[in-house]
Amino acid sequence: MEEFFYHIGWRTRGGRVGSHSTKAKGGNTDFNAHVPLMQHFNPKRLDLKASLNTVPNQLMVRSFHERYAIQVFAVVDMSASMKFVGQQNKWQLSTDIVQAIAWSATRNGDAFGCVAADDTLRMDIYEPSAYRVSVVDDIVHKMRSTQPLHPAGAKALPRVTELLPERRSLIFLISDFHMDDALLTESLHGLAMHDVVPVVLWDTAEISQLPDWGWMRVNDMEGRGTRPVFLRPRLKKAIENAYLNRREHLAQLFRAFGTRPPFFVLNQFNSEAMTQHLLEDY
User: Fold this and answer.
1) What does the pLDDT look like over 88-139, one tens digit per residue?
2) Do 79 and 145 lie in a common domain?
3) Do 64 and 84 fall into the same domain?
4) Residues spanned by the domain of 91
5) Does residue 7 lie within any of the structural domains?
6) Is residue 263 part of a domain?
7) Whole-prediction pTM
8) Which of 41, 68, 95 is the last residue of a domain?
9) Are residues 53 and 153 in the same domain?
10) Of the candidates 269, 264, 251, 266, the residue with the CA atom closest to the CA atom of residue 98
11) What's the chain look like in SS3?
């Protein structure tokens, strides 16, 4: 089972004992500062060197912050485009990524939950936040038992906040992001209080593995119909450039909303690449 490692650059508040920095005083591993003994009466943490360096001299002790667990969520786009099958089945790939997120969170002592949306909130996929290890199998079973509907958009994506906690959480937003900017902007605005990692699923069959010449029927999987297109090298190059421009545009849009840089998954998920991506941010 794929596992990756992550780190948060903010201090969580309250909750269950875990591995993340907090603002709460206590613990013995996350050093905070030296404080006067009478302010934090714990003679076991007396620091003689720090005490001798004070003017006037007074007894100083080491104070620490507690470490708590956080809540980790996968927010999954279930619009019809997520049914695309090229070099990889996007929905199967989404399932594999959610499984990796759930496994990584529970292994780290954090709670995991999952929220999905198409034009409605998909309660058949919803998994409340939980610390139990069995949540991994539960969400994988739910996702393997269903498919994105056809046709369906992602109109309810901004409503996922209804099922997310008010306390700041780590959110993995999984989608191919084939949606208009207005919908994506509304969704990101609602998630602004959280630590969001956009996970972009693309397939080389959409971008570069197109024939140089020939007729091809283009199908809009979200209900706008089909039309024939005659491919030629110039059009193929234009399609590739459109994806490059879209990639840069998405990066700029995410940056404007203060999310982490997007993690692009092309055909196959790599947990080591995800770890490197997440740890490079902090």
Assistant:
1) 899 999 999 999 999 999 999 999 999 999 999 999 999 999 999 999 999 9
2) yes
3) no
4) 71-280
5) no
6) yes
7) 0.82
8) 68
9) no
10) 269
11) CCCCCCCCCCCECCCCEEEEEEEEEEEEEEEEEEEECCCCCCHHHECHHHHHCCCCCCCEEEEEEEEECCEEEEEEECCHHHHCECCCEHHHHHHHHHHHHHHHHHHCCCEEEEEEECCCECCCCCEEEECCCCHHHHHHHHHHCCCCCCCCCCCCHHHHHHHCCCCCCEEEEEECCCCCHHHHHHHHHHCCCCEEEEEEEECHHHHCCCCCCEEEEEEECCCCEEEEEEECHHHHHHHHHHHHHHHHHHHHHHHHCCCCCCEEEECCCCHHHHHHHHHHCC
Residue 25 has pLDDT above 80, yes or no: no
Domain match, 64 and 76 both: no
Q: Is residue 1 part of a domain?
A: no
Task: Give the number of domains in the chain.
Answer: 2
Asked whether residue 31 falls in the same domain as residue 103, the answer is no
